[in-house]
Design brief:
Aminopeptidase, 7 strands, binds coenzyme A, globular, single chain, 4 helices, alpha+beta
């Protein structure tokens, strides 16, 4: 299936509905709910679509604009997972971040159990900056592996 990455701002009303449905999914809402509510100029949101349907979302948030740093987030509609779209949307967003957005550094994070996300980040060259296993005494549920990639 050929899929293309486009800015969120280019969508028609049906595709915006696809986005709302994906953002309503239980494990996507925590990642994208706040980003879409903010609607601010420091978030660049992209969608991966195929034959007009939105399959996945990615966002680059400029968290330290003065330094050219950003944060990468992405999610795939549950019905389209395990088909390579996660890798595709993350790859496309990283290319935009280091290309047209001109960023020099990206961070991202994943729960230790989120093997798909960790595989995607590591294949893109992101390096873990925190341990995969929670420190003794840390909240196991809240533990995140933080990653960093330089342009
Ligand atoms: C993480 C997520 C984006 C992965 O999307 P996806 O389309 O299923 O991923 P892909 O099909 O591109 O697979 C990427 C890699 O993960 C592996 N993978 C996919 N699902 C997996 C699973 N459930 N368990 C283990 N590995 C898995 C794939 O085999 C692939 O690895 P490989 O290329 O080395 O074989 C998706 O599960 C999701 O949207 N989760 C909720 C939001 C989220 O966690 N976002 C990331 C944090 S910002």
């Amino acid at each position: 299936m050929i899929a293309e990455l486009r800015p969120l701002t280019s969508l028609n009303s049906e595709q915006r509905q696809d986005v709302r449905r994906i953002v309503g999914e239980v494990d996507v809402a925590p990642v994208f709910g706040a980003i879409l509510e903010r609607g601010g100029s420091h978030d660049h949101v992209y969608v991966l679509s195929s034959v007009g349907e939105v399959l996945a979302l990615a966002a680059i948030t400029r968290d330290r604009p003065a330094l050219g740093w950003g944060q990468l987030s992405y999610a795939v509609s549950q019905r389209y997972r395990q088909k390579g779209f996660g890798r595709a949307v993350a790859n496309g967003a990283v290319a935009r971040a280091f290309g047209e957005l001109g960023l020099g550094r990206l961070t991202s994070s994943a729960r230790p159990s989120n093997l798909a996300s960790r595989r995607i980040l590591e294949a893109l060259g992101f390096l873990a900056t925190t341990p995969v296993d929670p420190s003794p005494g840390a909240d196991q549920e809240a533990w995140l592996v933080h990653y960093r990639l330089l342009a």
